[in-house]
Specification:
Number of strands: 16
Number of domains: 3
Radius of gyration: 21 Å
Structural class: alpha/beta
CATH class of the largest domain: Alpha Beta
Mean pLDDT: 96
Number of helices: 15
Bound molecules: 1,3-dihydroxyacetonephosphate, iron/sulfur cluster
């Protein structure tokens, strides 16, 4: 390949061909060398859904909340190479200082759920809802959302939530206003508000495609408005999966992520964030049996880590989160070599105004967790 072609690929954010010809061993050796060379100037946070070959290089692995906290606390690293998805890297950029640079090794590593709410839809929804409910609503957004939506929420008195602090944040939100608009995951919103006592009949759904409130009762009874978004991975766990497990393994416990639909969470024995799931399985007795309803890279890692327990996926046909899987060794190495060569690629930059508003929403969450 010509040098010119190489730089064109760099600019466009496409992995240069040369990285496809390297062996796994070559890439691993080079990544280790760069980590050694950069020392504390480099920080690689990795989400639990990352592939095994990538997570082995993470300086710290965690759920969304832990990763956000680590980035907020880290003041030494000049370069933060985020092994996760786009909204996580945006959050890291918002929470770090102006001298620190955040990168996402593959810009195509998005999140289908975060893509289900854009800021234009959100502004339209807010105007329509304010028209009906006046100033009685506080917005909460799952961190699986764009920086623009976090900024919107910050500006309107709300906060971000993650799957590990959603209960506390929902309780806080009800001290602020009578109603909550919960973006963009209807399932996390429904599961959490149901747990703290909101009846399902007092939850409405906002359809952002048709700009329409879906609700059949009296509008004044609505306590929660759920954005009609979902995770395409976690919607893959069904009531039938739970029935099959109960029939085949009566002793098996079922644990799921709260992004699963309400009916599935209701039939499970427990639910929680990726960290909660890891902790519960790690502390379980040898010989115990578990069906897990979450992403497959994590489930497979738990199976490998606990040969003394019988662990399976709640859905035998589940596959990994495809966007998390975009981060692979070639992209990680490309990103790290860019840093070393002073030709950084795939930097995530959230503009100042968005950062200032989004940080308000994130800090309201971090202060309470
Ligand atoms: P956790 O915060 O539980 O790690 O979840 C993040 C996520 O994207 C789950 O799909
Ligand atoms: Fe997004 Fe679902 Fe993948 Fe999590 S598992 S990053 S919510 S698509």
């Amino acid at each position: 390949m010509s040098i010119l072609h190489y730089f064109e690929e760099q600019k466009s954010g496409t992995l240069p061909e040369i990285y496809r010809d390297l062996t796994r061993e070559q890439m691993e050796t080079r990544i280790l060398e760069i980590k050694e060379q950069l020392g504390d100037k480099l920080f690689i946070p990795g989400h639990h859904y990352q592939r095994d070959d990538v997570i082995q290089f993470a300086d710290a692995a965690g759920d969304s909340l832990q990763l956000a906290q680590m980035c907020a606390d880290n003041k030494e690293a000049e370069h933060i190479v985020f092994c996760g998805v786009h909204f996580m890297a945006e959050t890291a950029d918002i929470l770090t200082n102006n001298q620190q640079k955040v990168y996402l090794p593959d810009m195509r590593a998005g999140c289908s759920m975060a893509d289900m709410a854009d800021i234009f839809q959100t502004n339209r929804a807010w105007a329509a809802l304010e028209n009906v409910f006046g100033e009685t609503i506080v917005p909460l957004t799952y961190v699986n959302s764009t920086a623009a939506i976090k900024a919107f929420v910050g500006k309107n008195g709300g906060a971000t939530v993650t799957s590990s602090n959603a209960h506390a944040m929902v309780k806080w939100a009800f001290t602020q206003k009578e109603r909550i608009l919960f973006l963009p995951d209807q399932h996390l919103g429904r599961n959490t508000t149901f747990d703290i006592g909101v009846p399902l009949e007092e939850m409405a759904v906002w359809d952002p495609i048709h700009d329409k409130l879906e609700y059949e009762g009296r509008l004044e009874d609505i306590q929660v408005i759920l954005w009609k978004g979902h995770c395409s991975v976690h919607e893959g766990f069904s009531v039938q999966n739970t029935i099959d497990i109960r029939n085949e393994y009566p002793e098996m416990r079922i644990i799921v992520h709260p992004e699963c639909p309400r009916e599935v969470v209701a039939l499970a024995d427990d639910s929680g964030s990726t960290k909660n799931i890891i902790d519960i399985i790690s502390n379980a007795a040898a010989g115990s049996q578990w069906a897990i309803g979450t992403e497959m890279n994590l489930v497979n890692r738990l199976i490998q880590a606990h040969p003394d327990k019988h662990i399976i996926s709640l859905n035998p046909h589940m596959c990994p989160c495809l966007t998390m899987n975009r981060i692979d060794l070639p992209h990680l190495l490309w990103c790290l070599e860019g840093i070393v060569n002073g030709e950084a690629v795939n930097q995530i930059i959230v503009d100042e105004q968005t950062t200032n508003d989004a940080i308000t929403a994130l800090e309201r969450m971090l202060e309470r967790t």
